[in-house]
Amino acid sequence: MAFAGRTAMWWARLRSPCLCATPLCVLPRLPPGSAACERLYSSRGKEKLDMSTYPVENIRNFSIIAHVDHGKSTLADRLLEITGTIAKTAHNKQVLDKLQVERERGITVKAQSASLFYNHEGINYLLNLIDTPGHVDFSYEVSRSLSACQGVILVVDANEGIQAQTVANFYLAFEAQLAVIPVINKIDLKHADPERVEKQIEKLFDIPIDECVRISAKQGTNVEKVLQKIIEKIPPPQCNTADPLKALVFDSTFDHYRGVIANIALFGGEIQKGHKIVSAHTKKRYEVNEVGILTPNEQPTHKLYAGQVGYVIAGMKEVTEAQIGDTLFLYKQPVEPLPGFKSAKPMVFAGMYPVDQTEYNNLKSALEKLTLNDSSVTIHRDSSLALGAGWRLGFLGLLHMEVFNQRLEQEYNMSVILTAPTVPYKAILSSAKLIKEYGKAEITIINPAQFPDKISVSEYLEPTVLGTIVTPQEYIGKIIVLCQDRRAVQKDMLYIDEQRVMLKYLFPLNEIVLDFYDALKSLSSGYASFDYEDAGYQAADLIKMDILLNGNPVEELATIIHSDKAYATGKLLCERLKDAIPRQLFEIAIQAAIGKRIIARETLKAYRKNVVAKCYGGDITRRMKLLKRQAEGKKLMRKIGNVEVPRDAFIRVLKREPDK
Amino acid sequence: WPYCRKRCSYCNFNTYVVPAVDEAAVRACLVREARTLLRLSQVKSITSVFFGGGTPSLATPGTIAAVLEAVAEAAHLPAGAEVTLEANPSSTTTQRLAGFKAAGVNRLSIGVQSLDDVELRLLGREHTAAEAQAAVEAARGLFPGRTSMDLLFGLPRQSLHAWTQGLEAALRLCDDHISLYQLTLERGTVLAAQVWGGALPAPPQDLLADMYQAARAMLVAAGFRHYEVSNFARKGALSTHNLSYWRAEQYIGVGPGAHGRFVPQGEGDCSREARVQMLEPIAWMRAVQSQGHGTGKRVMLSPLEQLEEVLALGLRTDEGITHERWGRFSPHLSLEAVFGAAGQGLQQQQGWMVLDSGGLRCTERGLAVLDSLLPDLLCRLQRA
């Protein structure tokens, strides 16, 4: 893991400076665990809707995709207002973003859905908006949402133009063969340049200029036209109510009173209360308690029909029972399951420990509750000599890790110790003994402590991502240097207009995981954007670097690192440790080592004099108090060999110092 | 005596600078409190008396005499008992010193601090190097073999050379006892504020160690015994009074902010107490006038706490903690039982401590880092 100057631990900063401008909460702070069931606005009443009045041909299922802060949530708010789904007030901001952290950060973390009713040329249409998260970490959520859609609205900021995430999202939609409606937003801004953006869209996505809709979601300009385009351009779902039930689970939430609420898209048949349904994945049988649509709060209906999108509650007790991508069908009427999509794959792992071991059980229960609503977090029990009992958690990315940590703090009032994040490396084992032990030749390493020795490994592999960078051309030079420094290989470079360039690089994941985004933003004055997608594994010259104190390894500082980066990182860690460990009675050698080879060393000199000068009658009481406090402190020290290290020293070393 | 004419820049003692002191009232209270506490302790014989402060040499010899008389009335005060007075070079004319001698003082401890005028100004001292020199010479004339001087080292910007030069001058001047204190920056003092605020440099750790080592070598070469962390004596001129602190003997503190450790047998108690007299002189006087003493705080010391003090204080001396003394405080657990492991373990290997038939004590190297050794020793003691 590359630490050099960019190790990260607490994630208090917002990653994107523009996010700060988003107004805070209109929602009062939610009590713990209730985020999914509390609603701001009243539902349409208790009376159940009859959904049979919306035949397949009058249904449109769509998502809005956009680069972060290009106005996706604002457009969603307007669509909800125009269709009367929510009351029109000045307070409708990020209506679909229900989590406190989403509103504070101005991002969408969890996909939400809403059914809109719209009359166009005398026909009542049912438009299902499936909102998508706006950050690369959550792109799996985007592809999950898209699987229930036939079309997307691609929102591009008229001022900023196409950004890295615009590109990534477009290709997700394009590969899913969805209709794409380009919408140029924020035309009310002074520096808006919709012509330029239209040209970019034509050049990059091959969409004719006249298909773009220019809008101001904030002011409501032309939003009506977007609705018309949805009806004209997006095909209705291809399915039939007469077919047997075939429902795709594309999301799920957990409600403390009602259990799992599964969001479903019906690709055939119908579903209603009392139906016996089966999960294709688990083969478990359930009885449907309630079906309905989301407006965006749950609105029960008599039935749901083919082509419609809604929710089902069927006595599932755990979110894992509603596996995302699973197909539900009627008992004794099995269907060919829908192709499930890639499930969430953790890209970043970190150890999580309670600050105080007495908090272990509280943290455990908080983690259990939080992971109920975020099944993309993987969790394994782990323990560390220094930090006690804890867990190793897998996250989709750093933002995901930050958001998760922030939710733990905000919704469960827990503060935790996070160890340095690491990416999932792999090793192809060559030792027959180890292969037998693991039961396979290829193993994934999520904890440096488990890094197998080179002798028993034929090849190490590291995860890579294909990164897209969109930048004004004046920063290209610096960005290329940055990418090379991160061991990236250039794959493509394209001018998307006279000023803007799109670069594609293959990055080792560990090189971007910690602070690449920050580095990119700072050297481009915030103008370059970045997005990435999984690009598989590549062979890499990986080594495990140990940090030794007087020859004894410090378990929590062991890192897996590319051999090219070992020296610089080792040196930095040693320097930081020297500052973090207090002087002791003997000299302390702080070393970075690869196997038996020492690659960096700092020396912490021994105390030569440490004795108080005056200790007479009047000094004794104070003196004894201090000594006893030191003796108490000694018991809390982590001992590595004979070296005593304050508990917080390692965290201080790993933590990125704001001034360094 | 809690009063000073001026506060020094490094000092955070309980001292007061007031325009006029009602000496008669203070004297009466000192006398009364001494009587009360001596009765309380049921002590039969006094081995030493120490007038500290503050600046006790600002008091008149009459006050010193009155207190000594009170002590002698309440308990046996042998003719040879050590009676020390702390004196400032700015209040020690030969005439005044003779007055103190006549009052019963037989040992003088002079706060020279430095023999360099620039350093003295930095320390906020009232006197010059020449005055200090004159004071020591006058004292030696009256108290031959029983005059001590204090010096400070590790001042901001002080070099090793300047320190050894100063110490050489001091060796030419001094009698048979000398105390060398590394400057401690105390919270709330002018000097500490200057150093922590960056106006003055903090002396580097290694330089302080060098200064200490060099000083020790010079004094040992001059025939001094390094008998405590900061104290040196030759010809047996050790301070009996201060040794009694480090040997954890009983002592009674009289006067504002004075500390004591004794068993108040007069109240029928049998365990050692830590007592602190009220800090503020006016409040203290009122208390003494109304109840005979101005004890502000008294805490019973548990056997473990007593042993902790025996350990932390005893190890400051070159004799360390004898088996006999340890046994007095810890009849059931011997030094070997508690520290045997330490003796055979790390600390002896490293040459910091010795445990043998003489008891437990620090080596020369160990003494310099005693405060780093003690927390671990206290942990062992608590576990034992």
Model description:
The complex is a heterodimer of chains A (660) and B (384). Chain A has five domains: 51-233, P-loop containing nucleotide triphosphate hydrolases (Rossmann fold, 3-Layer(aba) Sandwich); 246-330, Translation factors (Elongation Factor Tu (Ef-tu), domain 3, Beta Barrel); 348-418, Elongation Factor G (Translational Gtpase), domain 3 (Alpha-Beta Plaits, 2-Layer Sandwich), CATH 3.30.70; 425-540, Alpha-Beta Plaits (2-Layer Sandwich), CATH 3.30.70.240; 543-654, 2-Layer Sandwich (Alpha-Beta Plaits). Chain A is 24% helix and 31% strand. An eight-stranded antiparallel β-sheet of chain A has the order 11-10-16-7-8-15-12-13, with no helix packed on it. Chain A has a six-stranded mixed β-sheet with strand order 2-3-1-4-5-6, with helices on both faces. In chain A, strands 21, 22, 23, 24, 25 and 26 form a six-stranded antiparallel β-sheet that branches. In chain A, a hairpin with a 2-residue loop joins strand 32 and strand 33. With 384 residues, chain B is an alpha/beta fold. Chain B contains 16 helices and twelve strands. Chain B has helices at residues 23-41, 61-74, 94-103, 117-122, 129-142, 160-173, 190-196, 205-221, 240-246, 281-291, 303-314, 323-329, 335-344, 346-349, 364-368, 370-383, and strands spanning 48-51, 82-87, 107-113, 147-153, 177-182, 225-228, 231-233, 259-262, 273-277, 295-300, 353-356, 359-362. Chains A and B meet through helix 14 of A and helix 8, helix 9, strand 8, helix 11 and helix 16 of B.
